[in-house]
Amino acid sequence: MGTIAEILKRLQGHKVYLDTNVFIYFLDRNPDYFRLVAPIIEAVESGLIIACTGDVTIAEILVKPYQSVNLELVASIKAFFRMENFLTILPHDAETFDLAAQSRAKYNLKFIDALHYATAIRAGCAFFITNDSGIRSANALDVILLSALP
Questions:
Q1: Are 119 and 7 in contact (CB under 8 A)?
Q2: % of the chain beyond a pLDDT of 90
């Protein structure tokens, strides 16, 4: 698959969907994956890659802070996703949900993964970055699995 530097060069100028785990690894400074996701987030911030994610990503990330009643962290996460010129947050409409159902049926994905996948396709993304091994590349989307990177 290549190094993170090679991947970033390949992604440059393309529309890329970032799965929830990319943001979790970055925000939590995950010891196993931060070294991979930090350059991705930096490339998004600098405009080298055009990134997007779905509304559902923010909802998934906010669960633990809400469970622990850490409202300061909730506010910090929301501010992170509201940064100007950072990434596009995509809504999930009826057509996206229908495509998610089709993707779930065709690829046997968990529903949340199918929703991310469908959102990426509907947004016209060429790449999908995740660490969910159940999501595979298909004609419409090239999946980059973080755990496969050296």
A1: no
A2: 89
Give strand pairing partners of 129. 18, 144
Question: 62: burial class by Cβ within 10 Å (0-12, 13-18, 19+)?
Answer: middle
Domain boundaries along the sequence of the chain: 4-148
Superfamily of domain 4-148: 5'-nuclease (3.40.50.1010)
Tens of pLDDT along 73-102?
999 999 999 999 999 999 999 999 999 999
Sign, Cα dihedral of 40, 26, 120, 114: positive
* Measured CA angle at 27 (ends 136, 58), to 5 deg: 65
